[in-house]
Amino acid sequence: MFYKLYYKFQHWRLHKKAGGTPLQALYEQPFINSFQLFTSTRFLVLDCEMSGLDVKSCQLLSLGWVMIEHGRIVNVSARHQLIHADRGAGESSRIHGLLDSSLAGATSAASVLMLLIKQMQGAVLVFHHAPLDIRFLQKAVIENFRCPLLFSYIDTMDIEKRRIHLQGKTMGLRLSQCRDRYGLISIQQHNALADAQATAELLLAQASYLDKEHKLKLSDLSIRCSR
After folding, report:
1. 3-state class of 160 per DSSP?
2. What is the mean predicted confidence (pLDDT) over 140-151?
3. CB atoms closer than 10 angstroms to residue 179
4. CATH code of the region 2-225
5. Listed range (4-8, 9-13, 71-75, 165-169) with the worst mean pLDDT
6. Distance CA 24, CA 188 (A)
7. pLDDT digits (tens, 9 = 90+) for 92-115
8. What is the pTM of this model?
9. Per-residue pLDDT reduced to its tens digit, 175-199
10. Which positions ≥6 away from 73 have C-beta within 8 Å?
11. Where are the domains of the chain?
12. Helix (H) or strand (E) holding 61
């Protein structure tokens, strides 16, 4: 219930501001009901790479995404978009491997975000550890279009955290640790697309575990609205 009320409130508060911007089509999308079945939902699994963890001083470096439709990963939908960074790749380059030289000819943040917005329409977004990615996304969108994104999303880290809590256990929640518990193979590379694909596989494994009667709904996965 809170999800629906918050979504409606955000739409009422911001839809006029989104008018005439690339976000207008996103705000015109119908509300995604939390009782919608998992297998009937189109998901956009997204991962972001940043120059650091401080939203105020750091920036997006790349986005990777892949679709899930009818409970299956759509491999041809996979995209990896590098973003021009006027302040460089930062110290986090040792994690994601993105260097200043590899970002030299990258696309502008506005162009990449417009591509993303087109893919978001009619989809529920999926993240592993959503709060950080969402903060960086919203910052970039507001800087470029003066209005935040409005979308529904689920968080595979949160799904796993709740599952472990119900079992009375305490375990690691990093993407690789979560995948290990479902017998998924180790990720061989670390970039936004590889992590998006790994998160998509994790979501399907989690859904299979939870969906004993093939009636899994979005509400069972704690669907939320962007802030």
Report:
1. helix
2. 97
3. 21
4. 3.30.420.10
5. 165-169
6. 38
7. 444 445 544 454 456 899 999 999
8. 0.92
9. 999 999 999 998 877 899 999 999 9
10. 66, 67, 197, 200, 201, 204
11. 2-225
12. strand 60-69
CA–CA dist 85, 76 (Å, integer): 27
Can you give the C-alpha Rg of the chain in angstroms?
17
CA–CA distances in Å: residue 67 to residues 78, 94, 101, 140, 196: 7, 28, 29, 22, 9
CB atoms within 10 A of CB 34: 19
**Amino acid type, 59:** Q
Asked if residue 170 has pLDDT above 90, the reply is no
User: Which residue is it, tokens 């990615």?
Assistant: 133
Query: Two tokens at 122?
Result: 């009619």
The letter for the amino acid at 178 is: C
Cβ atoms of residues 226 and 14 within 8 Å: no
d(CA 48, CA 33) in angstroms, rounded, equals: 26
For the record, the structure tokens of 141 come out as: 């969108």
Report d(CA 103, CA 81) in Å as an integer.
10
Cβ partners under 8 Å of residue 49, min gap 6: 60, 61, 62, 63, 64, 92, 96, 98, 191, 192
